[in-house]
Amino acid sequence: MYETREIKAHGHTVRVNVDPAPEREDRPALWPTVGEYPIYDQFLYSTMTTDQERNERFLAALAKLAPGRRVLDIGTGEDLLWARASLQTGARNALAVEVIEDAFHKAADTLTALDQHDQITLLRGESTALQFAPKADICVAEIIGSLAGAEGAAAVLTDARNRHLTPGGLVVPHRAVTLAAPVRLSTLLPGQPVAFAEASLPYLQAIFDWHGRPFDIRLRIEHPHTDALLGDGTPIEVLDFNGELRTEQRTTTRLTITQAGHVDGVLTWLNLWCLPDEEPLDALRMKTNWASIYLPLFGEPVPVTPGDVLELTVEVALSDDGIHPDYHLGATLHTTSGNKHHGSLTSPHHGGPFRAHPVYQALFPAA
Ligand SMILES: C[S@@+](CC[C@H](N)C(=O)[O-])C[C@H]1O[C@@H](n2cnc3c(N)ncnc32)[C@H](O)[C@@H]1O
User: Does residue 100 line the site of ligand 1, with CB under 6 A?
Assistant: First the structure.
């Protein structure tokens, strides 16, 4: 069963349904998405510094590309992770940039204690607003979201390629793709209430505080029950960091239903390549800090049978901050019996409506 709690955000009282059961490894859990907001704390950084699946890939790429080079680490975090790894793998020097003030100060303390502190320059600010000289040969930036582009990687790394990298300079990671498959939200959390994990409430509050009011935040599903996927994953967003990198994109795809069930939205997850010719990290099937994101499309679950097709259009367009994208989805479910069901979602990075969709009306009950 869920419980209803109240949080306060800038004078707004928000009622939130919470699953009070303790979080366990591998138990599905519903959180707000967190990575695209400046609310990182030690817990969130530690989920990344201990992510072996992720870290091995970034390290392998740096071992190949960094020796003898000048490396720019965008979003170094409080641990200066990739700036330090670059030096350990033979980089000549590294420039580390962090926008969050508290993380920057912790990184500065970390730097003072390092033997190689004179080979790392640490700057505070947003890479898109800073000037660096000389330019870097390699840019490493782990600003990849569970919805791949949600943290602004396309805009930030387009700017890095244009202004901060030498001609022929390379970006790590190499490529990120968001996949989507048809699902029903309740089956991703079997036997559990559709409610936020208790531990996620401080983050929900921090995000609403940062924005100044509540909004329909994207829903992050940790350890989703993968039997709930009613079809294969299909790409809806492609980011080629060393190729044709688009800050805005539109994809139309057809998701074929392979199992009978009900559909009310799509589950999306990340595939990530740090080097071009490796097996990608698959956030749905590997143990990693990236989770999946559920995006609601239909007000009510629609019954489906194998052979039905969910035609999905995803438009990724920059929000008013010019960095973080908003996602606009339009869907038509074509059943084999000839019926059509239409659904849609606008999922802005910040702002937009509150309690617009039935799933948000249920998660944030009215007083
Ligand atoms: C996902 S965390 C990664 C932290 C660390 N690099 C790691 O891989 O464990 C992303 C970090 O990048 C920072 N960040 C995001 N965009 C940035 C930008 N354009 N300039 C500077 N910092 C940025 C965030 O504040 C956050 O600390």
Answer: yes
